[in-house]
Amino acid sequence: MHTMWKGTISFGLVSIPVKMHAATENKDVKLRQLHKECQSPIKYEKVCPVCDVELKNEDIVKAYEYTKNKFVVLDDEDLENLRKEQEDKAVEIIDFVSLEDIDPIYFEKSYYLSPNEGGGKAYGLLRRALEDTGKIGIAKIIIRQKEQLAVIRVYKNTIVVETIHYPDEVRNVADVPNVPEEVKIVKKELDVAKMLIEQLTTSFDPEKYQDDYRTALLELIEERKNNAETTTAKEKPSPDNVTNLMDALQASLDRAKKDKPKQTKRKTTPKKKVAT
Known about the structure:
- The chain is of the alpha+beta class.
- Strand 9 (135-143) and strand 10 (146-155) form a beta hairpin.
- The protein has helices spanning 76-87, 120-133, 187-200, 212-226, 241-259; strands spanning 5-11, 14-22, 47-48, 53-54, 62-67, 70-74, 91-98, 107-115, 135-143, 146-155, 158-164.
């Protein structure tokens, strides 16, 4: 597995050098957007709307918009120093709590932890202590330049970091519209609903579930491919030197005509007729 972070997890006087690996992956089927006429992939370019020019990465800076059209510009060096300062700190477990105390709405993303060089024994100690007590650790960790609140727990003999939302990142449930306070329930209806739940209750088996939409979409793509229902994007024609030269000459000629000062016609005085 790719190592995305190296650091130290500590609780009390025990420090554990660890490596972090992504525990999940996105398997969404990614579709490209093509120009309907020529079937070429569409490019998305970074363009300044004021200067009307395409920008390169070195032309772009990061900034915080503190009010409309007012920004505080932050240098890459400032952000890098701040990130490095935080990442160099050991990840300290602040508290131990029960997993049942945390509502699933707080959970965000999972990462596996493996021991780094010399950390095997301390890793095993924390894993065993968490298993025997049934507790999970609460810690803070910097991931991708963001400080995350995290849960440290054991999953199938491996220590896992679960990033969780801060309380102010979870929207107030009172703001959800049209939620009824109390609804009058007929006892017979409630009994039938409970009976249905009991009949459908089973132990959780993740292998039982699959993404039916993704499976059907991949089957459709494979069917179209096998039936030769495919398309090939047109390549951009190579620039022709002669054409480019003619274009440049024509553009120069047009510019010269435009810049050339207009000549004013001389006013001619009509000749007087001589009387005979």
